[in-house]
Design a protein that fits this description.
- By secondary structure, the chain is an all-alpha fold.
- 77% of the residues lie in helices and 0% in strands.
- It is built from seven helices and no strands.
- Helix 1 runs antiparallel to helix 2 and helix 2 packs antiparallel against helix 3.
- The chain is globular.
- The termini are close together.
Length: 199
């Protein structure tokens, strides 16, 4: 029987990939860039963080909370997401030519890096200890499905911002093309009808 979870990376690997994607995007941002590139990169970061936070809150954190409700890093994770959302709101409302735009993005990324460090040193290893690989893959499949639903209404905007924000960056072009190829392959694979055996 076909199972999407057997094709999916684990949820913990997906979370690590999300962290890397945001950090790579942040490293493309320079205060001396033209305002349109800065705004596009900031929007790319904000969209990625909003989707990532929603996925963790809907799928990852509830599972961890059932396993260890008193984990201190877990208890502070959603309030940290709320603070990131507040900064994202301010960043979106600030013109890229305003010096505050650079400061807000730096504040946001400082908070993100602290949050990422906690997750990668505490929450992700705990999940990999407490959950089987099969369960982590099932959660990864759930995350993939939900991610596609959250990305769908923003796909055009994200593609445009990636093209504008990463123009001239070889790293970004390679990452962008790789992501596009992976998405196309994933979207072209259709699950067989229920009850159909695959070999």
């Amino acid at each position: 029987m076909f199972s999407l979870s057997k094709l999916s990376p684990t949820i913990t690997d997906m979370i690590r990939f999300d962290h890397s994607h945001v950090l790579v995007t942040f490293h493309q941002y320079t205060p001396g860039s033209r305002p349109s590139a800065k705004k596009a990169l900031a929007d790319t970061i904000c969209d990625a963080l909003e989707i990532h936070a929603a996925l963790e809150e809907e799928i990852f954190y509830p599972v961890l909370r059932r396993l260890d409700p008193n984990e201190p890093v877990l208890q502070k994770s959603e309030p940290e997401h709320d603070e990131m959302r507040r900064l994202i709101g301010e960043l979106r409302a600030t013109d890229a030519s305003d010096v505050r735009h650079d400061a807000l993005l730096n504040d946001l990324m400082r908070d993100v890096m602290h949050h990422v460090a906690d997750e990668e040193t505490v929450l992700l290893p705990r999940a990999e200890t407490m959950l089987s690989k099969e369960r982590l893959e099932e959660l990864g499949a759930q995350m993939t499905s939900r991610r596609l639903a959250l990305l769908k209404p923003k796909a055009g905007k994200i593609a445009k911002n990636t093209a504008v924000g990463f123009s001239g960056s070889t790293t970004a072009i390679v990452v962008g093309l790789g992501a596009a190829v992976m998405a196309a392959r994933f979207m072209s694979k259709k699950a067989p009808e229920p009850g159909v055996q695959t070999h």
